[in-house]
Amino acid sequence: MRTRGRPRATAREQARAGILSAARRIITLEGWTALKHARIAKESGYNPALIGYYFGTMARLREELHAAGVVETKVKHVCRCEVCQRTMKEAP
């Protein structure tokens, strides 16, 4: 049964880490412009309001990601199977 009030420390740490992890994935795959509350919430599975709860503003979340060295690569496909490699070579 869930208790009322603030989440426990471990739950807070997990939620915060999950949000950061989702934001990293979004930036890596789609770039900084794709980083939105709704997109992070969908990717992480957490309520969009928790982003504001844990980071205050998107600017502070971005600052933390910059400090962690997150870079934009925009990788579209990472599979190494023969079929995908052949398809990627044929693509313009």
Description:
The protein is mainly alpha-helical and 92 residues long. The chain has a single domain (9-90), classed as Orthogonal Bundle (Tetracycline Repressor, domain 2), CATH 1.10.357.10. It is 62% helix and 0% strand. It has 5 helices and no strands. It has helices at residues 9-30, 37-44, 48-55, 58-67, 82-90. The chain is globular and about 50 Å long. The model has no long low-confidence stretch (mean pLDDT 79).
Give the topology, please:
Blueprint: H1 9-30, H2 37-44, H3 48-55, H4 58-67, H5 82-90
Features:
single chain, 92 residues, mainly alpha, Tetracycline Repressor, domain 2, 0% strand, globular
In a nutshell, what does this entry contain?
The chain is 62% helix and 0% strand. It has helices at residues 9-30, 37-44, 48-55, 58-67, 82-90.
